[in-house]
Amino acid sequence: MAEADKTAKVINKSGTLKMDDKVAETKTRRDINGKNMGRRNNRRDRRNVDTTPKEFDTVTINIDRVSRTVKGGRRMRFKALVAIGNHKNKVGIGVAKGSDVTSAIQKATAVAKKTMIEFNMDGETICHEVETRATGADVLMKPAAPGTGIIAGGVVRSIIGLTGIKNLISKSLGSTNKVNIAYAVIDGLREQTPRDQWVGNAGKKATRSTSDQKAQKATSATKEEK
Q1: How is the chain split into domains, by residue range?
Q2: Are 58 and 82 in contact (CB under 8 A)?
Q3: Which of the residue ranges 29-33, 80-84, 182-186 would you say has the lowest mean pLDDT?
Q4: Which of 10, 17, 103, 203 has its Cα between 20 and 30 A from that of 168?
Q5: Looking at domain 57-118, which CATH architecture does it have?
Q6: Architecture of domain 130-196
Q7: Which among 187, 205, 186, 180 has a CA at the least distance from the CA of 195?
Q8: Which pLDDT score, from 0 to 100, does residue 84 have?
Q9: How far apart are CA 141 and CA 10, in angstroms?
């Protein structure tokens, strides 16, 4: 007994004795209902986290609060504008409404995945200059030399940042409605045509082919005369 009294005892601020580690190991943790909770091995650093890279990245461009007047008063909802892309040549946008911000973003993301487009590129820029108009928004996009970067702002930069375009010059004209600007950008990317399919180049190829045919006919006619 004398040896036990000589051992140091740790007292908490409340005046009670601190539980020893050996004693704590024998205790069982119970929840509010008295059930044994067992040992917790679900620490955050021990959970199986999916570290595989995602195929598509999403960006929430804008969230607006909209209201609708009904018989009982005003009904408040949220409208989300979301863009999705694979940092290559696939991109899409989606607009949806929901009772809260989370549901609105989820619905808009699902719409964006369904309406994705695949456009043509010329290296790390667009194929040619294009100006598109959606309702009141007018967007002008021009190809740029390597090293120029993305000269754009707001909605255009957010959407182009999800593609493989690294050099671009753009200007937003007309309306400042973000939804209309996003639709105008998507229309401009959809209209991109590769250089070998341009009307001028196709016309040159056609004229060359017809001239070659005429030359062959002339040479064959001279050989027959001889």
Answers
A1: 57-118, 130-196
A2: yes
A3: 29-33
A4: 203
A5: 2-Layer Sandwich (3.30)
A6: 2-Layer Sandwich (3.30)
A7: 205
A8: 94
A9: 73
